Amino acid sequence: MCDAVVLLSSSFRLLRPSPHLAGMLLRSSSSAVFMTGGNFIDLLVESDRDSFLQFMGDSNTRAKMLHARMRDAKSSAVTVHFYHTKYLNLEGQPVHIIGIREDSEENRPQTPQELQSSLSRQAVDEGDHAMSRCVWVDASSIDLTMVKCTPEFSAWSGPSGLNVGLLNWVAPADQSHFYEFFHKALHHYIQCSQDGSESVGPGSLVLKLQPPHWGRSIEAEAEIVEF
Q: pLDDT tens digit string along 87-113?
């Protein structure tokens, strides 16, 4: 298990706040470097930055490890293990998942297979709330084509791509229920925008998701939060 997991953009900036990393380094979680957009490189000991960039530039998508040092609140060097894997989000942009674990004798290095699964799982677990796993769809499309999503959704769902129908991810037995639920919510929000009311929406729906690349199904709760 890592002490912290961060999601980084292609320019190595945080895609969401990381209070766990701030705590590990005994620094304030309100510091800009730990907030969305913070430059992860700034946290590294200067002499380790080139090796980190080389490590991150490896085209291999399998999880791998690097020893490096980070600066704590007193500017002391903290030796850590970096575990790295990456995937493409729905917009085709690379997202880096970096697991960070403080170096100690008790910490056993994990195998690549263990890293791949544990990093994705912990990246999701460290999210603020399940509601951060959001996806936007084209409501005019028959299959509800996904057009963008949050990093938390990508970390949870795994590699995917643009122009994929969300309806195709729903188990066949639940597709008609979900489609009806979606359009009921659509009509509700249209009505509210027309008459200015703020009545309670259609709530949520429990259904089974079965993304083709998973090879399995899971039960999930869906809620329409905006149009």
A: 777 677 888 888 898 987 544 455 444
